[in-house]
Design a protein that fits this description.
The chain is built from two helices and four strands; from the N terminus they run βααβββ. It has helices spanning 17-29, 46-52, and strands at residues 3-4, 66-71, 74-79, 84-86.
Amino acid sequence: MPRTDTVGEDEHAFTKPSMRALEVIADAEGVAPADLEPPLNEVVDAAALDRLFEPVAADDSARRGRLTFRYRGYDVTVHSNGRVELE
């Protein structure tokens, strides 16, 4: 069954997408984010993921879109609004 992070967009404002993904996966597995193996950086470039949805410098507007990657048996979809879905 798909799992969706249900925290509102405003609550994501200060959390990097890579950290949101780790938090949602850790919650689904009942562990702390630091206990997840392998480290996220071995599967996806976490810094690039965070940069992907940073505001555009020219007008400070947020980028739109989503990115899906496979991690720990989940298809993890990170949306530009901060929402994270696990399938």
